[in-house]
Amino acid sequence: MTTETQHPGEAESSTQSTQSTQSTPSTASPAPSPASPSDRKRFYRLTADISNQLRFLADSGCPGFDPSPEALDILKKWEVKPTSHKRTKAETETETLDDIQRELEDCRRCALRGGRSRIVFGEGDPNARLVFVGEGPGYDEDRQGRPFVGEAGRLLTKIIEAMGETRDSVYICNVVKCRPPENRTPEPDETAACLPFLNRQLAAIQPDVICALGAVAARALLKTDRPISRLRGRFHDRDGVRLMPTFHPAFLLRNPDRKREVWEDMKKVMAAMGQKTD
Ligand code: SF4
Questions:
Q1: What is the pLDDT of residues 29-83, one digit of tens each?
Q2: How distant is the alpha carbon of residue 250 from its chain centre?
Q3: Minimal CA–CA distance to 152: which of 222, 214, 211?
Q4: Structural domains present in the chain
Q5: Torsion angle of alpha carbons 33, 72, 169, 190, nearest 10°?
């Protein structure tokens, strides 16, 4: 089930100024370090939410919040990202991306099998906090077996780097793993055939935030027919994970004046992940 939600990070990003007045408890102590990877992930999600909420309150002019250098230092410690770690099956109790990729080898579950050179499974950090999901491979991706490596991919890479991330620190994949002929939109039965593999990829990665690039990805992940222009710009809840729909980079190449809207969406993603947006 999917519902539209507003999280502390979203509220902060849509209303906060760029000044850094912040608020914290007055006693300094380093953030505790949770033991297990899943606890660690929950912990950093929680501290990012608290940090965002405190900054929002401070920026809103709420009295009683302390913007001293000591308090700012505490908040900075809270915003430390979890380090990447290799998870074992026992830790995650889910299958790995390699398990899923092996199952897709020579997949013939839909008509797109006929036109592909390679299956484009996805790439990036298997423990990424942020996953980008596009529509399907194009010509360059089909040739190289990698997602988003053409002109639109280069624009996506620029967006990722402007967010302070790299292609290696996030995960990038598509709804369908085989190139549709002439880059047409995947048919509903093709999307339906491939979507379970995307769902399994997301279950294996367990990201904090999913960014759906374009209408096909947003509609497939949110099970809706609403246009992307109505979906983008705010978080939706997808089984407990925040999902931000935004325009596809290929659309931005045709409509460069819409880049500002995508950047506003990405700033909300950054805020939700506890990253600074100024
Ligand atoms: S698009 Fe997905 S379901 Fe269809 S053949 Fe390719 S891998 Fe299989």
A1: 555 555 555 555 556 555 555 555 555 455 545 555 565 666 656 655 555 444 4
A2: 18
A3: 214
A4: 2-78 (no CATH), 95-272 (3.40.470.10)
A5: 100
Dihedral of CA 66/69/74/78: which sign?
positive
**CA 53, CA 278: separation in Å to the nearest integer?**
16
Q: Is 175 in the pocket of ligand 1 (CB under 6 A)?
A: no
Dihedral sign, CA of 139, 207, 156, 195?
Answer: positive
Is the beta carbon of 177 within 6 A of some atom in ligand 1? yes
Atom of ligand 1 nearest to the CA of 136: 1
- Ligand 1 atom nearest 186 alpha carbon: 1
E-strand stretches of the chain: 2-4, 123-124, 130-134, 171-174, 209-213, 236-238, 241-246
Q: Does ligand 1 come within 6 angstroms of the Cβ of 179?
A: no
Residue with tokens 């369908």: 176
d(CA 80, CA 34): 13
Structure-token pair, residue 128: 């990424």
> Closest ligand 1 atom, CA of 110?
4
∠ Cα 209 56 54 (to 5°): 90
Residue of minimum CA distance from atom 4 in ligand 1:
110
Does the pLDDT at position 193 exceed 70?
A: yes
Output the residue whose Cα is nearest ligand 1's atom 2: 194
Residues 6+ apart with CB under 8 A from 39: none
Q: What is the pLDDT of residues 225-246, one digit of tens each?
A: 999 999 999 999 999 999 999 9
State if residue 178 touches ligand 1 by the CB under 6 angstroms criterion: yes
